[in-house]
Amino acid sequence: MKTLEVKAGNIIIGGDNPIVVQTMCNTHTSDVEASVAQCRRLAKAGAQLIRLTVPSMKEVDSMRKIKESLRAEGIDVPLVADVHFSSEIAIAVASVVEKVRINPGNFHKDHEKAREQFARLVAVCRENGTAIRIGINHGSLGERITGMYGNTPFGMKEAAMEWIGMCIENDFYNVVVSLKASNTIVMVEAYRLLADAMKENGVIFPVHLGVTEAGNGDSGRIKSIVGISALLAEGIGNTVRVSLTEDPQAELAPAQYLSDRYGRRLHSSMVSIQMEEKTAVATYSAPSRERLIEDIAADFGRLLIDRGIDNIIIKGSYRDENGTDIILDGSGFASYLADEMLQATRRRFYRPEYIACPGCGRTMYNLESTFNEVKRRTSHLKGMVIAVMGCIVNGPGEMADADWGYVGEGNGMVSIYRGKTPLLRHVPESEAIDRLLELIDKEEAAL
What we know:
This protein is an alpha/beta fold and 447 residues long.
């Protein structure tokens, strides 16, 4: 899908340019020293765009200092300001960074006022050469859109097209669009609808791809690559982020894999495939465990999401860190990978489904260790959907599919949700997992 070109600092997104790899800091932006250090490390590791959260006006000045420090060191990776709940912050920071991400669902409560504020933002961006990302999230569409279309892929597309229309009205085209969701089926459907709508509209903006709140470990990588690759294979997508509840640097390797694969700079390690009715039997000769996982997710994600196949059987081998070939035929690891693929594509749940954000400067607790502990203590709850969220920005909304949710409030406190309903608020973090399990056990006993 040929798109317009968008300039963010020294990076061009869209057109015939390579897929751009990005990530997001999980430092507090107000901690300038820590943020600069993390940006330095991420730039060295290959990040082409680095996003930082700007939750209040004081972080606008922090962003300025971070940028000045990086540029003084000769690090010219474009910086993206992530702004929620305040159009004034977006306007203020637009002259500082190379790109501003706004969320239409919380840009401004009043839609007419939002249109006025957006025109102001566009004026600042035009003057400073700043790009804008219209960043729709499944979990934060806003009451106006959900009231008309529900919390649906169609509603996500309609919200994006409305704001795309505002960009065109303001004669501003330095714009990237995203429609993220934690559910891979919702995510893929929303982007496909958006691509069709932009083609019909006659103006095709570049698209940023990501599966939000994908989690961590193998499952987070598989889930992300499944969703993103399904779209890249169709020519949809110009920049990617693999959102993991890990150190941000860990996001870069799988994102670079996607850029390389769909930029035709590498190919799958699959050496043969046979079909047994709707089961794919695939044989691999992978150079590493990581590459095997990436290839399987990219090879079969779209087929499973679109129900072209119902199952996969993995054979062949991969090479471990010692250079030893590990045989996959009939192994527990091969079965595990097939189960993870079916889980990621929501074809069959063999364990709990976890929704967990990657963390950022808004997160007020140790998200990664908490998430790992929640996973450890809930691993027996097959088929249950459990969310662990860093803050309220996307937390309650992105948990639309979740049975239970653990949401950080800040100041060492947590809210516990049943679906979209908060059952407990202001629970001390030290007690929160116990309280969550007590509520789950109580409900299970009552059934």
